[in-house]
Amino acid sequence: MYNLNIEYPRLGKDRKNMEPKERVPGNIVSSAILLSKPRIILSVAFTGFAGMVLAYRGIPPSSLVIFTMLSLLLSAAGAAILNNLLDKQVDIMMDRLTRRVEALRVVGEKTALALSILFIAVSLIISFYYLNPVNGILIICAILSYTLLYTLYLKRSSPYGTILGGIPGALPVLIGYSAVNPRVGIDGVILFLFMILWQPPHFWALAQKYKEDYKRAGVPVMPVAFGSRYTNIFILLYSLSLFPLSLSLWLFGYCSTYYAVLAILFGAYFEYVMIRSAIKDSSYGKAFGISIVYMLAIMASLIIDISLNGIRVKVL
């Protein structure tokens, strides 16, 4: 069903110097971990935990946290591995993904597919059996919207695909929230919208830095289709929208003034970096990195604030 012999139509600098790894157990395990995109799935778990804390108005019971985190990590890892399989011909053309392409060769496509199915299946069993149907349905929506809607269609067909492509990356907050309370409130929707609006400028900064990679791979990201200036306008618009949205959790009474102060401080620095990068048309790598730090800082501020203050609000 899958062609195990991946050819390299274009060799990047890193790939030329890379020694092929042997298919031994140690290399297969390390390569499988790389394919699961560990840094991304840890971020997914962290945003999911923020959703749990928001729904519970504090730290949820340890058993609930363990089952939810396990389900989130497995589903995200399974979807990431499947994404590598679906994107293999695109990834081969991109120099920055050299290690990921080599990892897929070492693991083997059949093994990678089996791991993906196993992780997703176990995740859904945990979700439907130990949590609730709403949680399981949201996980299915996240997997399908990431692998089918975004990877196979939006990413390859439209420069604006990133906008709707933010849905699977934002769903983990609702997955975490629904594990505690299947009836998602306004607070959960606000956090979901924050993640929806955070992802486009985050990705566009990366696309600006690696524009030539995407152009060579034939992926019509906004910098390739419309140029840097047009893309920077969108980066600014989306980045600026995050500041008031992050404060809305305080305005609606879900977080305290301490959270608001931190959100203002983190937000001010984030906006400074993004605006400076867009105006100067440079430092996109820094903008990309700071966007990650900003998102994690907002989530951490929310978790700490609610946990320490034990805020109680009525479900709207």
CATH architecture, by name, is Orthogonal Bundle
* Uncertain ranges: 1-14, 311-316
How many strand units?
A: 0
Q: Please work out how many helical segments DSSP would assign.
A: 16
Determine Rg (CA atoms, Å): 20 Å
CATH topology: Farnesyl Diphosphate Synthase
How is the biggest beta sheet arranged?
none
Brief digest:
The chain is an all-alpha fold.
What features would you describe in this structure?
Helix 7 runs antiparallel to helix 8 (133-157) and helix 8 (133-157) runs antiparallel to helix 10 (167-180). The N and C termini lie far apart (50 Å). This protein is globular. It has a single domain (29-309), classed as Orthogonal Bundle (Farnesyl Diphosphate Synthase). The protein is mostly helical and 316 residues long. The model is unreliable at 1-14 and 311-316 (pLDDT under 50). Helices cover 79% and strands 0% of the residues. It is built from 16 helices and no strands.
How does the SSE layout of this entry go?
Elements: H1 13-17, H2 25-35, H3 38-56, H4 62-86, H5 88-91, H6 98-107, H7 109-131, H8 133-157, H9 161-164, H10 167-180, H11 186-209, H12 211-217, H13 222-226, H14 228-251, H15 257-280, H16 284-309
Helix pairs in contact: 2-6, 3-4, 3-10, 3-16, 4-7, 4-8, 4-10, 7-8, 8-10, 10-11, 11-14, 11-16, 14-15, 15-16
